[in-house]
Automatic annotation (TrEMBL):
Transmembrane segments: none annotated. GO terms for molecular function: nucleic acid binding. It comes from Nitrosomonas communis. Gene3D superfamilies: Ribonuclease H-like superfamily/Ribonuclease H. InterPro entries: Homeodomain-like_sf, RNaseH-like_sf, RNaseH_sf, Tc1-like_DDE_dom, Transpos_IS630-like, Winged_HTH_dom. Coiled coil: none annotated. Residues 91-147 form the Winged helix-turn helix domain. This is Transposase. It comes from the Bacteria. It holds the Pfam family DDE_3. Residues 161-299 form the Tc1-like transposase DDE domain.
């Protein structure tokens, strides 16, 4: 007796024995596919019954036909799936079709785009936007800063705060973020033709979660000094105030250096090209999501009022900010 896929009774018996005695669910699934095909099931029926893709069903039979059970066992020990995973870790493809072409050229296994998409999901891959990182990031210097920061937190006096400081420049224009929209329909958001923006200079204490924000015409040494004065006024009992900032040129200016010479404020500079270490960056992203994502303000005055309202309502956001502004730093290694 033989099936339409050409399996003998002995081959079917071997497959049944393998399925009964293996503890590897994935291997058992491959055996079941070929066994059912050998019993006369169509590829469509097997795919439907086992919740698989028809191409995967056919490909597994082809793999079995070329190398028998040993073909799966080699794959299980680190064959094509493991090699594909390693290849995708090192190379970025924009479409599943391109990956299918690579697989066919490398392993002579054919997939349609839909079948490759399902395979990628099974391997734990999802279609999402890559994340840009600074090309000159130095992982070792970032790790040194994280260690220094943890030591500072442990040794500082209870009344001595640690602030993270930086500026941002939100534009009077909505940001089209993701949202739930009915299939086949668009959700339109009006935009503004100008590029008018607000210059915000700010600092946040990750313990108290109360941001100190300034509106300035320009962010420079003078506006930085004004912000530092506001920070100092908030902590009359502190013996030392630590302010962590990036390497913007105005932080190194003579005006700022002279202003700080007799004060209890100490600037701590982050390693270059390490934006993820400046926790106020997370606050600014949260702020922009609240103000700009999917929201249109007809006039610049309305836009500025929305910013004011967000800062006034800071206490309402403390729970969200507490889970966001944690010490869970991500060290960027572009090597």
């Amino acid at each position: 007796m033989s099936s339409r896929y050409g399996l003998t009774d002995q081959e079917l018996a071997e497959l049944e024995f393998e399925h009964r005695h293996t503890t590897d669910k994935r291997y058992a699934g491959w055996v079941k596919v070929v066994y059912l095909l050998g019993k006369g099931w169509s590829a469509a029926k097997v795919a439907h019954a086992l919740l698989n893709d028809r191409e995967m069903v056919r490909n597994q039979f082809q793999r079995y036909g070329k190398g028998g059970l040993a073909a799966w066992q080699r794959n299980d020990a680190g064959g094509s799936d493991a090699a594909l995973t390693q290849h995708l870790r090192e190379n970025l493809y924009l479409t599943a079709k391109e990956i299918a072409q690579y697989v066919e050229q490398t392993w002579q296994v054919a997939y349609r785009e839909s079948g490759m998409t399902q395979l990628l999901h099974r391997l734990g891959y999802f279609y999402k936007k890559p994340r840009l990182i600074p090309g000159k990031a130095n992982a070792e210097r970032q790790k040194e800063f994280v260690e220094y920061y943890q030591t500072l937190k442990a040794k500082k006096a209870p009344d001595d705060p640690i602030y993270f400081m930086d500026a941002t420049h939100p534009q009077h224009n909505p940001i089209a973020g993701y949202g739930w929209i009915r299939r086949g329909q668009d959700h339109q958001i009006p935009g503004n033709t100008g590029r008018q923006c607000i210059n915000l200079n700010g600092a946040i204490d990750c313990a108290g979660l109360c941001p100190i924000i300034r509106y300035d015409d320009t962010i420079h040494a003078q506006s930085t000094i004004a912000l530092l004065q506001q920070i100092e006024q908030q902590h009359p009992a502190a013996a030392r105030i630590y302010v962590i900032c990036d390497n913007a040129r105005y932080y190194y200016s003579q005006l700022v250096t002279e202003y700080l010479s007799d004060l209890k404020i100490q600037l701590i500079f982050l390693p270059p090209y390490a934006p993820d270490l400046n926790l106020i960056g997370r606050y600014w992203r949260f702020f922009k999501k609240e103000i700009l994502y999917g929201k249109y303000y007809q006039t610049f005055a309305l836009f500025k009022q929305a910013c004011d309202d967000c800062f006034v309502a800071s206490n309402c956001y403390k729970e969200a900010l507490r889970s966001l502004l944690t010490d869970n730093f991500q060290v960027i290694d572009c090597a």
